[in-house]
Design goal:
Strand 1, helix 1 and strand 2 form a beta-alpha-beta unit. The protein is of the alpha/beta class. The chain contains five helices and seven strands; from the N terminus they run E-H-E-E-H-E-H-E-H-H-E-E. The protein has a five-stranded parallel beta sheet. Strands 6-7 form a two-stranded antiparallel sheet. The longest helix is centred in the middle third of the chain and has 15 residues.
Length: about 160
C-alpha cells in the first residue's frame, strides 16, 4: 500500500495514483473532516509532528501493509527525510529527498537566487523593501506553502 500524508483536499493526486497503480491508496491527516478521505481506500488520523511517535507510526504502517510513503507538504518532507533510513530498515520506503536538498529549496528567495545564478529562467523575485509604488506585485512569504499569506496589490 501507498500512504499519502497530510492528504487534505488532494483528490487529483489520489485519482492519478489510482489510475497508475494497483496498490491500495491510504491517506492520513491531522483532521478528520477532509474531502480526500472519501476517495481513499483507507484513512487514518495522524498525530501532529510535534507529538509524533515513530514506533506507533511504524506499527500502523505494518498493520495497514504500507510499504511506500509520499509526504505531501513541506513540514512532512523535512520530517520524513530525517526518518527515511530508519523507516527503510522497517521495509517502509519514503519518497523524499535528503534534508539538505529540501532545505535548499524551502526558502523561495534563496532558491530563486540559486536558480538565477545558474542562468535558469525564473519569475523575478524581489525583497519587500525593494517594492516600487507604481507596480503590481504578488506577495508571498519566503517559506510556507499553499495560498497562506499570499497578497496581491491592485493599482
Amino acid at each position: 500500500s501507498i500512504l499519502l500524508t497530510s492528504i487534505g483536499a488532494k483528490v487529483p493526486l489520489i485519482q492519478c495514483l489510482k489510475e497508475k497503480t494497483s496498490n491500495k491508496i491510504i491517506g492520513c491527516d491531522i483532521q478528520n473532516s477532509i474531502l480526500s478521505k472519501y476517495f481513499l481506500d483507507d484513512f487514518f488520523i495522524a498525530e501532529k509532528l510535534e507529538n509524533f511517535d515513530i514506533e506507533r507510526f511504524i506499527l500502523t504502517c505494518k498493520n495497514k501493509n504500507i510499504h511506500y510513503i509520499i509526504p505531501t507538504r513541506e513540514a512532512d518532507l523535512l520530517f520524513f527525510s530525517e526518518w527515511k533510513n530508519y523507516l527503510e530498515k522497517q521495509n517502509i520506503f519514503v519518497m523524499v529527498s535528503n534534508k539538505q536538498s529540501i532545505e535548499s529549496v524551502n526558502n523561495k528567495y534563496r532558491f530563486y537566487q540559486r536558480l538565477n545564478k545558474e542562468n535558469i529562467n525564473v519569475i523575478p523575485i524581489i525583497q519587500v523593501d525593494c517594492l516600487e509604488e507604481d507596480k503590481k506585485y504578488v506577495l508571498k512569504e519566503c517559506t510556507g506553502s499553499g495560498s497562506k499569506n499570499l497578497f496581491i496589490n491592485y493599482l
